[in-house]
């Protein structure tokens, strides 16, 4: 952060430049995945110098994390987490991911990196993201319980972890076998366990 | 493979030596994970020369794949895939993984590598493994349907992909937050959807 340097113009310009680089990086990862992406190779492809890229992102991990964070920020802006229900939410997210397998691959890479000691920044990001997404989904499950849609004896935190896991795991299987796995259909089986507000499983109306 | 070299003694000895190296590698990964494991660093730790290790495993990918394959072979020997039910099977497997987080990390690494072009051998292994595990679980779901335990309108292949995904995803979340995620409890929620033979959800006996 460059606050307090007394050069607000340069600061704003820096922010804009950083965002522009992120845009290019997101497009690049979406199109080609993160396969072997080093800061140097990313700089080459998006047409900035290695030094310029390093000025904004001190490591490959930071670039990957910030690219994914920005991608999610854009997508979540138009979404109400509680809308529909916990499963409907993950189905919508999986649907939008299907058009950009490169970003699903980026997410899987971040998750795998997070499991290893050498990637503390990635680990922190992924841990915090999991905690936040689980908390949001647990909230949606608890709401469904108050509304009488979801069985009251089901633990919201356990259910939230299950829905996140199913969504993550199904997207990995789909990337490896697009014809053999249908993310939406498999995820929608969870609607039987955790019905959404406008559920397809209803028959009492 | 060294078949047909006319030296059955040397061949047998080679097999034994390879297995011995695999044993050490599995222990090493179980204890310390695969963090940054190169062939050279693995050779150092298990006390063989880099050249000897390369004689048996031509790449890091091959060593990781073969170590995981051997680990699974040992564990699956005593298991009947149809026993209990599709969910019970994954719960047992998750229980046995919990004592060796390093091997859960190895599995996550293989899965992430499989998504990238640079790891064709890993990709082939993970694709084949997913296809096999899904087929076994779909079989267990279909059996449950024939026995009247599992809803007949549920697609066995969709359900199988869901169970594998939930199990994989939950183990990743657990590795990152052992206190915040209970793999067994979350997985067991799927018993409500796919009851096992000796199900805990019964109440009609």
Protein architecture, described:
Two copies of one chain form a homodimer. Chain A is mostly helical and 205 residues long. Chain A has two domains: 8-59, Arc Repressor Mutant, subunit A (Orthogonal Bundle); 79-198, Orthogonal Bundle (Tetracycline Repressor, domain 2), CATH 1.10.357.10. The first copy, chain A, has nine helices and no strands. Chain A has helices at residues 8-32, 39-46, 50-56, 60-76, 86-97, 101-114, 120-146, 156-176, 183-188. The longest helix of chain A is centred in the middle third of the chain and has 27 residues, at 120-146. Mean pLDDT of chain A is 87; it is low at 199-205. At the A-B interface, helix 6, helix 7, helix 8 and helix 9 of A face helix 6, helix 7, helix 8 and helix 9 of B.
Provide a short characterization of the protein structure.
Chains A, B: Residues 38-57 bind DNA. The structure is a homodimer of 205-residue chains. Chain A contains 9 helices and no strands.
Mean pLDDT of chain A: 87
Largest sheet of chain A: none
Just give the CATH class of the largest domain in chain A: Mainly Alpha
Instruction: Tell me the series of helices and strands of chain A, N- to C-terminal.
Output: HHHHHHHHH
InterPro entries (chains A, B): BetI_C, Homeodomain-like_sf, HTH-type_TetR-like_transc_reg, HTH_TetR, Tet_transcr_reg_TetR-rel_C_sf
Keywords (chains A, B): DNA-binding, Repressor, Transcription, Transcription regulation
Pfam family, one (chains A, B): TetR_C_6
Domain HTH tetR-type (chains A, B): 15-75
């Amino acid at each position: 952060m460059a606050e307090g340097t007394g050069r607000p113009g340069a600061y704003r310009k820096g922010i804009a430049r950083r965002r522009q680089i992120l845009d290019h990086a997101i497009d690049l990862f979406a199109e080609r995945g993160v396969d072997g992406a080093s800061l140097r190779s990313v700089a080459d492809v998006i047409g900035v110098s290695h030094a310029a890229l390093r000025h904004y992102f001190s490591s490959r991990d930071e670039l990957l994390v910030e690219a994914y964070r920005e991608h999610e920020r854009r997508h979540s802006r138009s979404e109400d987490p509680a809308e529909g229900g916990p499963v409907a939410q993950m189905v919508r997210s999986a649907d939008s991911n299907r058009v950009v397998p490169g970003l699903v691959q980026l997410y899987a890479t971040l998750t795998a990196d997070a499991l290893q000691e050498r990637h503390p920044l990635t680990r922190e990001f992924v841990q915090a993201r999991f905690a936040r997404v689980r908390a949001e989904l647990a909230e949606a499950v608890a709401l469904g319980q108050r509304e009488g849609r979801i069985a009251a004896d089901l633990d919201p935190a356990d259910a939230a972890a299950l829905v996140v896991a199913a969504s993550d795991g199904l997207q990995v299987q789909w990337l490896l076998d697009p014809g053999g796995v249908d993310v939406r259909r498999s995820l929608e089986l969870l609607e039987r366990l955790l019905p959404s507000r406008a559920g397809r499983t209803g028959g009492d109306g």
